[in-house]
Design goal:
This protein is α+β, with helices and mostly antiparallel strands and about 100 residues long. It has a domain at about 5-45: YefM-like fold, CATH 3.40.1620.10. About 40% of the residues lie in helices and about 25% in strands. The protein has three helices and five strands. The strands form two sheets. The chain has a three-stranded mixed sheet with strand order 1-2-3. β2 and β3 (about 35-40) form a beta hairpin.
Length: about 100
């Protein structure tokens, strides 16, 4: 659970909050009117978050890039989990990987 503190109080305690995040490994969330507004994050944690987001974006681009055909098909009432879409994998060497 993150430590929550109002922005007005955080202004007066900024140095202490920074130490709690950097040296104590705590999560600090600044609030306004009781609602989360921003979080103080250690620089190393921010770098990890940015790297993870970049890797996730690259992975989704690779998956989207491998779909060669997308077409709509009628969904069946007997198959409620089906969304009515079909995607076929087409490798760069052809539809059967040759």
């Amino acid at each position: 659970m993150a430590y929550e503190i109002p922005v007005t109080q955080a202004r007066a305690e900024l140095a202490e909050l920074i130490n709690r995040v950097v040296y104590g490994g705590e999560q600090v969330v600044l609030t306004r009117h009781g609602k989360p507004l921003v979080a103080l994050v250690a620089a190393a944690d921010l770098e990890r978050l940015e790297t993870a987001a970049e890797e996730a974006e690259n992975a989704s681009e690779r998956v989207i890039g491998t779909v060669s055909i997308v077409s709509e098909v009628p969904s069946s009432i007997s198959e409620p989990g089906q969304l009515g879409l079909v995607a076929e994998y087409g490798s760069p060497r052809g539809p059967y990987g040759r």
